[in-house]
Design goal:
PH-domain like, 4-stranded antiparallel β-sheet, about 20% strand, elongated
């Protein structure tokens, strides 16, 4: 039996996000304090508030130590949503898709109706037509590369599926 792999958010990437938000928020404060027109000052304070609070909230969510994706002997589970555990026996293939700057783990299921009985959700529509599989998991900001996660899922799929 193989040990479970727990994929977490990268602390370094979360801190970089917080730092960038703080820099831009500071720029907004500077604009709010020094701009000549009242409308420019208002824009500066709005930028500072939006980026300051938004950056802090986004970074704090990513600074959690909870696993976000778990690869266990039983199967694959993305803890960030309401996704149920997908047993290895139900996964037919996996791959990594890139859309703009983001990468996604795309999982093709043997029986999608088992996970999406109503025909709604991730198991239908445009994602299947584009060849993105039944389940897509965003891999941004995690402590492992998308290719590393996909290769580990493939390896476990061949061993335990």
């Amino acid at each position: 039996m193989t040990e479970p792999i727990e994929v977490r958010y990268s602390k370094g990437k979360a801190l970089l996000l917080l730092l960038l938000a703080a820099v831009f928020a500071a720029g907004g404060v500077g604009m709010g304090l020094t701009a000549r027109s009242q409308s420019d000052r208002l824009v500066g304070w709005c930028v500072a508030g939006f980026l300051g609070l938004g950056g802090a909230v986004a970074a704090s969510r990513r600074l959690t130590n909870k696993p976000q994706i778990i690869l266990s002997a039983e199967g694959f589970q993305d803890m960030r949503g309401n996704q149920k555990l997908i047993p290895w026996s139900q996964i037919s293939s996996v791959g990594v898709a890139r859309m703009r700057q983001s990468k996604y783990l795309c999982i093709e299921l043997r029986d999608p109706k088992m996970f999406f009985p109503t025909g709604q959700g991730q198991g239908t529509g445009l994602t299947n037509a584009l060849g993105l599989g039944h389940v897509q998991c965003s891999l941004g900001g995690l402590d492992r590369s998308p290719e590393n996660i996909a290769s580990e899922v493939s390896a476990r799929l061949s061993r335990e599926g």
